[in-house]
Amino acid sequence: MRVTMVGTGYVGLVSGACFSEFGHSVICVDKDASKIEALRRGEIPIFEPGLDKLVAENVAAGRLSFSTELADSVRGADAVFIAVGTPSRRGDGHADLTYVYAAAEEIALALDNYAVVVTKSTVPVGTGAEVERRIRALRPDLAFDVASNPEFLREGSAIEDFRRPDRVVVGTESDKARAVMRQLYRPLFLLETPFVFTSRETSELIKYAANAFLATKITFINEMADLCEKVGGDVQDVARGIGLDGRIGKKFLHAGPGFGGSCFPKDTLALVRTARDAGSPSRIVESVVAVNDARKIAMADRVIAAAGGDLAGKTVGVLGVTFKPNTDDMRDAPSLDILPRLIAAGATVRAYDPEGMKAAAALIPGVTWVTGAYDTMADADVLVIITEWNQFRALDLSRMKRLMKVPVVVDLRNIYRPDEMAEAGFSYHSIGRAP
Ligand code: UGA
C-alpha cells in the first residue's frame, strides 16, 4: 500500500518507519525543510533507540522517503496519516488543532483518488468529524473516508511498541476504510494482535481515556507513597501486593516525582476541558492534574529538607533531567519544576543527563552542566536522582562517598535499596519508603 505520513514528529516518524518495515511504500512529509534535509542525510531529529537503523534500512530498501511537498506526496496514496502536533492551547488547556485542520485542508486539495485520511495525532472527540466536514467542503465530489487510529507508543520503546502493540484501535463506520486499515496492519493481524474497530468518536475517546487512566494509576501510587512515608510502609511492596491482582495490573505503579512528558500532562488537561465543556466534568482527572502539578513542585522541598532545611551556599548534584530515560525530551519534565526552586533557594546546581542537557540548558538557566555522573558529585552537599537512566543504577557508592562533601542522596526513582545505601554510609531519602 502507499502511505503518506504528514508530520515527522515522534509519532509520525516512528509510525512511518514502522509501516515501511511492514512492506508499504511510505513518504513522510514535513514543512520543516531543514528537518527533511537532515532525514534524507540519515540524521534523526529525536533520540529514540533503534530508529536511525530502521530508517536507514527502509530508505535503502526504497520503501521510505522524505519530502516537503505535501501535494505531490499525497497523490496516489491509499492512506494519508495526519500526525502533526496538537499542543496545549495557551490559556485554556484545550488541544490546539490548527495544524491538524491545516493539514486536512491541504490533503483535501491534493487528493486525486479514494484514500483514507487517518488522524494519528491525539485529537479530542469530534475532530475526525470536523476533518471530514472540512475536506468535503473543499472537495464535494471526492471519494474518501476519515478514520481515527490513535497511537499508544511510548518514547524510548516506540519501535517495539509499534511492532508489538497490546491492541490497535481503528475508528470508522466505513467498510472500505476498515479494509484499508486491516491491510496496513496486516503483519499484526498475523501476530493475532487484538483490533478494536469502533466509531470515530469512541476511538478518539479511547486515546484520552487510556492516557488519563495511566496517569491516574501513577498519581494513585504516588499518594500511597506519601502515606507510606507517614505511617511507615513500603510503597514498592504495596505496588507489588496490589499489582499482582490481575484486575489492577503491575505496570505504571512506580512511585516517583510525578508524571511528565509530551502526552500525559497535555492529554489529561485536554480531557478535563472536553469533559467540562460537555457538562460532564471528570473530577477524578481534575484531581490527578492538580495532585501531579503540586507533587512536582513538592519534590524540591524534599531536597531542601534532606539538606537540613537550607540550601544557601550549598551544592546540589543532579542525575537526570529528562522526563524519563532513553529520550532527550524535556517536555513537562519534573526537573523543570525542581531545579529552578533549588537555585532560588541559593544552591549551586551541578547536573548531568546522557541525552537531555542540550534541551535542558535552554530551559533552565543557572545550572552548571557537567560531562558525567560523577562530575555532579564533586563537593556536593546533596545528590538528587530525578531520572532513572540505566547508567545511574549501578554507581560506585564508595567513589560517590569520597566525592561528596556530605553523603546525602535523594532518590526520586527508588533505584537504590535503603539497606545498601545505609551500609555505604549515606543518609538516603527515597519515595514511599521510610528512611
Ligand atoms: C505515554 C503512554 O505511555 C503511551 O502509551 C502513549 O502513546 C504516549 O504517552 C502518547 O500519548 O503519545 P510516554 O509519554 O512516552 O508515553 O511515557 P510513559 O512511559 O508513559 O511515561 C510518562 C510519565 O509517567 C513519565 O514522566 C514517567 O516517569 C512517569 N511514570 C510512568 C511514573 O512516574 N511511574 C510509572 O509507573 C510509569
TrEMBL record:
What GO MF terms are annotated? NAD binding; UDP-glucose 6-dehydrogenase activity
**Pfam families xrefs:** UDPG_MGDP_dh (PF00984), UDPG_MGDP_dh_C (PF03720), UDPG_MGDP_dh_N (PF03721)
Please give the Gene3D superfamilies that the UniProt record associates with this protein: Cytochrome c1, transmembrane anchor, C-terminal (1.20.5.100), NAD(P)-binding Rossmann-like Domain (3.40.50.720)
Tell me the GO BP annotations in alphabetical order: polysaccharide biosynthetic process; UDP-glucuronate biosynthetic process
Q: Where does NAD(+) bind?
A: 30, 35, 86, 122, 155, 266, 331
What Enzyme Commission number does this protein have? Answer: 1.1.1.22
Active-site residues, record numbering mapped to chain: 263 (nucleophile)
Residue intervals of the UDP-glucose/GDP-mannose dehydrogenase C-terminal domain: 317-418
State the SMART domains in the record.
UDPG_MGDP_dh_C
Q: What class of enzyme is it?
A: oxidoreductase
Identify the keywords attached in UniProt to this record, alphabetized. Answer: NAD, Oxidoreductase
Which reaction equation describes what this protein catalyses? UDP-alpha-D-glucose + 2 NAD(+) + H2O = UDP-alpha-D-glucuronate + 2 NADH + 3 H(+)
Q: Which residues bind substrate?
A: 152-155, 207, 252-256, 260, 324
Biological or metabolic pathway of the protein = Nucleotide-sugar biosynthesis; UDP-alpha-D-glucuronate biosynthesis; UDP-alpha-D-glucuronate from UDP-alpha-D-glucose: step 1/1
Q: State the similarity comment.
A: Belongs to the UDP-glucose/GDP-mannose dehydrogenase family.
Q: What is this protein called?
A: UDP-glucose 6-dehydrogenase
Q: Which organism is it from?
A: Zavarzinia aquatilis
